Amino acid sequence: MSNFDLEAFIDSHKADEAQKIIHSALKEFDNIAISFSGAEDVVLIDMAVKAKKDVHVFSLDTGRLHSETYRFIEQVRKHYNIEIDIMSPDAEKLEAFTKEKGLFSFFEDGHKECCGVRKVAPLRKKLATLDAWITGQRKDQSHGTRNQLDFAELDGAFSSKDKPLYKFNPLANWSSEDVWNYIKVFEVPFNELHQKGFISIGCEPCTRAVLPNQHEREGRWWWEESEHKECGLHIGNIIPTKQA
Q1: Domains of the chain: which residue ranges?
Q2: Is 166 helix (H, G, I), strand (E, B) or coil?
Q3: How confident is the model at residue 38 (pLDDT cuts 50, 70, 90)?
Q4: Mean pLDDT over the full length of the chain
Q5: Active site residues
Q6: Is 0.85 surpassed by the pTM of this model?
Q7: What residues does the Phosphoadenosine phosphosulphate reductase domain cover (predicted)?
Q8: Most buried in the list 27, 62, 101, 218, measured by CB within 10 Å?
Q9: Which residue numbers belong to the known binding site for [4Fe-4S] cluster?
């Protein structure tokens, strides 16, 4: 939809009106999808299906997810009676990568290359087929990369000159407490790993439970500096650090 007016959309909505943002986005775009992986994303699905039964949902299967996460994806599919498009890495590129670097190269040279093959490339392929997507990002998930997050934006990472891609982040101003209050009130399904101390959940080798009072992103890529803790799916969030 090339005539979408982003500024008018932002002016006509408030950042704390998550459900209105989702419903309006679904009205604006026919070719729009929800990116699903965690607790926030199921909140989005729950809100979306109340407005539109045939909501489009996709999820990235990196091949390294926890067994609990695979069960969670299936639970959500059945609970909402929706189709979930499962996006997988390119088999040849993944085979070449693991042959050259092994299965745990990210502990030595960072997670970006592995995430590029397993997550970013499949996402880019999927987004190329869409006009807009909806994510469950929140500002407080990572103070180093997401504190400038807008609830509606032109996707700076995946748009092209010929094909703009719009991105909606309805939960940008929500807290983790807001998310879990919604989950409890509306009995929304959630990943059983959350009951084992996991908060932010990604691939099994790169995710661990956090201790009380630790920030949720401390459980992701814990061997790296905090400003690097984005996998590339939301690379537009990263604020460049000053060079010495």
Answers
A1: 6-237
A2: strand
A3: confident
A4: 88
A5: 231
A6: yes
A7: 31-209
A8: 62
A9: 114-115, 203, 206
